[in-house]
Amino acid sequence: MTIYDDRVNEDRGAALPPAHDIDSAYPLVTRHESPCCERPGDIAAKAISDVLGWKWRNGDTKGFTAALTGSFELKRVEGHTEANWTPRGYAIQADLGAVTGGQASLAARARSAIKDATALLDSLKPLRPGVDPENGEGFRSLVRHELEEIRKELESPLLRVPRVDQLFLLLLGNPASAVDPDLVRGHLGELRNEFGLIGGLVNTIEEERIQTSFITLVDWVLSLYRGWLDARGRIDPFAQPETGQAPFFGPAVVALSQLMSAAAVQTEELVAALSSVSIHRGDREVLRIPDPDGGSMSLGGLLRWTYEFTCFEGRKLIEVAGKDGVDSAFLQVAERLERLVGNLPRRGDGDEQDVPGNYRATLPPGFFSSRVQRAVDELHDHLQEIVRVARPIRHGAKPADPPGPPTPPPGSGPKPPDSPPPGPAPEPPPPGPFPPSAAPVPGAPAATVEASPDLAAKRRSPRKRPEPKPAPRPE
């Protein structure tokens, strides 16, 4: 029996009842194990996962390298290298994708501009008498810190768009009105007011050079901000479907990598929730769930498929085929999994009679507990987000051709040269000795007039020349 559900593409969690029960019939099963019983490899894997903020998986060398690079920042200090640890709050990875497109261009501009801007910032001296040195150095430190943070964000594959917006807001105040160094607000404006970097306080050429350094600093920041506005909509893959622009492939793949890692972790959470309500591995392999495209499959088979796709298969499709792999294979599998998970039976939904084809009645009551239903809903949300981010990625999409000149209405253009001019129809030629096709043309020489078709054929046929006779041989 084929079962179709019109609510496959809807939010599965919206139909769930409020979570006001505590699953008293299925208490959490906990077991205390002494540390001496744990294997050293498990202890090391757990410690590495806690430090890197990354879910350990055997054989995932690229994910380990990406997590290691993102968790530690290396600096060269006085001839030796120091590593600073950056704690991460969520176990994600960015082993796929890279900083490309508009983000890479902005990052290159930011490295060059901020390096020179920092040198100009350090060279600024106050022009206003009676300046408080501590206030001036405080604003200088704020501007330097915000410039460095903008550079770090633009170089990071895990770019946070609202944070970049906030950093520019702190630097420029209202960036829309910051069109002139004398009108800029924010911390740059506070630095200008504190140091007195305005034209009225400039007296010598050296003081004007100091003011020029501040003007150049503001111009570089404004130019970087305008570039950010131009590329912002295509850098953020999560906002792309609303902007209508094609996303850059590198940031989009980074987002897919994060979402697939979250979906893999959520699949493990769902398996743990099923085990806590006495639905173990053997039970999951025999419990049947409906397929919205027709037929059925086992619950364990769906969970294994989802985990393998989010951990290995999906990443391999992106690595080996790029955009073609996303468009022709990755998206189709993700949509199928999203429909299967979204169509899982809900609590209080459907008939509970144990009849053939009623998959809800064959599932144990623990499947409809709040903890399992909420875990299924979170997994469905992750798969929906994967489909939403992957759907706009296409290969070979070209911009539409610009419209050509408008087509003139009929009868408004120039007339063809051989059309007769408007007026009375010409009179037919008088009868003569020549046929119409051989009538003489006025003003033409008489030698060009053909008297008859036979004569014309004779003139067109080439005359065969006689072959020359051989010369007599001398005796």
TrEMBL record:
Return the Pro residues bias intervals: 400-443
Domain of life (superkingdom): Bacteria
- Composition-biased stretches (Basic and acidic residues): 464-475
Query: Where do the record's region annotations for Disordered lie?
Result: 395-475
The protein's name in its UniProt record? Uncharacterized protein
